[in-house]
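Hi U.,

Before I forget, here's the chain from the pilot set. I'm dumping it here mostly so it's searchable later in email.
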Amino acid sequence: MAPSGERVSLGQLTKMSTDDGAEEINREAGQRYIAIKYSVRGRDLGSTVEEAISKVNRSVQLPAGYHLEWAGEYESQKRANKRMALVVPITVLVIFLILYTMFRSTKWAVLILVSVVMASIGGPLALFLTHTNFSVSSAVGFLALFGVSVETGVIMIEFINQLRSRRKGMEVSSYEHIVEAAVEGAVMRLRPVMMTMLVATLGLLPAALSHAIGSDSQRPFAIVIVGGLLANLVIGVFLLPTLYVWIAREDDVLPPAEMSEDF
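Structure:
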């Protein structure tokens, strides 16, 4: 209505049309933004987004004043990967220092770390067999697997060293003495090692087999640990004593013979 009281149609003041446009205007940090969302199925998030970034950069020319930011879960994964790149070396270093303090020998500490790395092969193999993509959750599972694998190595090496220490001085060749201690240690430590592996494996098996809502975050974690523990059981009982025999020498640093053979 005009100031004089006359009625004025809207068509006299403006032109009206129906066009496609944004339903709402979003702002963040004082700037407008348009959120484009999509989900990833059947592939890992990292490689999918990297491929999308490459294709968009080649094919899309943005107007002046516009820029792209790849955020969301991808951004969170990138931050987590940077943290893992720092956490993993520190974790391995701390484990090595603890092992060295315990055994007073670089040889045994390195041997246990080598067995841990080899036992971790079971994690990627389990992810491959279950068609599960690598994620931050599975990376955390590898850190947890390191701890259990180190425990198995410590149990085995400590027991073999105790056997060698108790039998030191017997009338038998050095090589035969080492082989007998390694074989007996593997046989006698089979039960505690197997109990440790099976308890952890059976406890995480429901999570590894779950496909319910919310299982996407816990399933990769459980799959890595279950696969790694099964591999660690074989490596800890067979491969670790074999490596021990290869690198053991007569002048190795051994603990005092204070325990009985049934410990």
